[in-house]
Amino acid sequence: MSAGHITVTTPAIAEPVITCETPQDECGVRDVLDRLDDKWSVYVVVELASGIHRFKELQRAIPGDISQRMLTLTVRRLERDGLVKRTVYPTIPPQAEYGLTEMGHSLTYIIKTLADWSIAHRPAIAASREGWDAAHPDSDVR
């Protein structure tokens, strides 16, 4: 490299797909991520994408061992956010059915895209993790 050549060339970086007016604005993403970041919300949305479920059907369909209390909290939070609609029938005992709202259905496309991305990149992520772990054996980052 010549003495006059002191700049570093880097490949062109694509413009960000999303930008926020201010760092504090967060583009509304934090609020949505907080809802979907819990352990069960995405599972509930995915199950309800196939159609209306009664409470126990939904509980049995969700992978893992979700308690009745946790499922109740999850569907109430999703209902509060306008993603799930709860319909109660005046029977004895009362029966409730849960289904996605139009907004909830629109979220399923995003979840599907994220799931597809995850499946496509899982081997590369695993390889990257193995390489990083080998290079940093004393790290507690996992």
List the helices and strands and how they pair.
Layout: H1 29-36, H2 41-48, E1 53-54, H3 55-61, H4 68-80, E2 84-89, E3 95-100, H5 102-135
Antiparallel strand pairs: 1-3, 2-3
What do you see in this structure?
With 142 residues, this protein is mainly alpha-helical. The protein contains five helices and three strands. A three-stranded antiparallel beta sheet has the order 1-3-2. Strand 2 (84-89) and strand 3 (95-100) form a beta hairpin. It is extended and about 65 Å long. The model has no long low-confidence stretch (mean pLDDT 87).
Question: What's the quick description here?
Answer:
This protein has 142 residues and is mainly alpha-helical.
Protein traits:
142 residues, mainly alpha, 3-stranded antiparallel sheet
Low-confidence stretches: none
Largest sheet: 3 strands, antiparallel
Query: What is the radius of gyration?
Result: 22 Å
- Could you state the order of secondary-structure elements as H and E? HHEHHEEH
Total strand segments: 3
Portion in strands: 5-15%
Helix content: 40-55%
Strand order of the largest sheet: 1-3-2
| Overall average residue pLDDT | 87
So how many helices? 5
Class inferred from helices and paired strands: mainly alpha
Oligomeric state: single chain
Q: What is the 3D shape? A: extended
Q: First CA to last CA: what distance?
A: 40 Å
